[in-house]
Design a protein that fits this description.
The chain is α+β, with helices and mostly antiparallel strands. α2 links the parallel β2 and β3. 40% of the residues are buried.
C-alpha cells in the first residue's frame, strides 16, 4: 500500500443517515485500500445509507501541509484530511472547527468541536484527522462508527508500490 500525497479529492460518508455501524455491510474501504470501488461510488448512495453527498476534500499528507493546516484561513469549503495524524490544535486559528478522528480503515473513532485556542486530545488508534467548519460534520452525518470513503484527485493518489 502506498502513502497519501498532498492534493484534492472527494469525501463520501457511508451510512451517514443510516445506522451507527457505518459500513459493517462490507462496503468499500478508503481509497488506499480499494481505489476501484471508491470511484464507482462517487455521487450515489452506498449500501443502506440512503444518500451520499460528495464533499470537496483537501488532503494534507506532507509535514509542511499538515503543519500549516487551516492556519491563516478565514473559513473552509469542504473538509481537510490530515494524514498521518492522531491529534490537532486550534492555536492561532480564526474559526471553530469540527474534528473527526479516523482509524486506518477510515472509520470515525470520535468527533469533537474545537474553538480557537484549544488543544485536541490525541486518540491512540487514530491514523487520520478530518477537519471541517463547526457544524459541517454533523450536517454530513459524520459520527462515531460511520465509515468515510475518500476518492483522491489526480494530485493526491497514492503512488504505485515500489516493493
Amino acid at each position: 500500500m502506498g502513502r497519501w500525497r498532498d492534493g484534492t479529492g472527494t469525501l463520501l460518508v457511508v451510512g451517514g443517515s443510516g445506522g451507527a455501524d457505518g459500513g459493517s455491510d462490507g462496503g468499500p474501504m478508503g481509497a488506499k485500500e480499494d481505489p476501484g470501488g471508491v470511484a464507482g461510488g462517487v455521487g450515489r448512495a452506498e449500501g443502506g445509507a440512503g444518500r451520499a453527498e460528495a464533499i470537496p476534500l483537501t488532503i494534507a499528507a506532507s509535514y509542511r501541509a499538515r503543519a500549516r493546516g487551516l492556519l491563516g484561513r478565514d473559513g473552509l469549503t469542504g473538509a481537510l484530511l490530515l494524514t498521518p495524524a492522531s491529534g490537532v490544535h486550534t492555536f492561532r486559528m480564526r474559526f471553530a472547527i469540527d474534528v473527526a478522528y479516523l482509524d486506518r480503515h477510515l472509520t470515525v473513532l470520535d468527533v469533537h468541536t474545537l474553538r480557537p485556542g484549544r488543544l485536541g486530545r490525541p486518540r491512540l488508534r487514530s491514523r487520520h484527522v478530518l477537519e471541517a467548519e463547526a457544524g459541517a460534520l454533523e450536517h454530513w452525518g459524520v459520527r462515531r462508527g460511520v465509515r468515510v470513503v475518500i476518492a483522491p484527485g489526480p494530485s493526491a493518489s497514492p503512488p504505485p508500490s515500489v516493493r
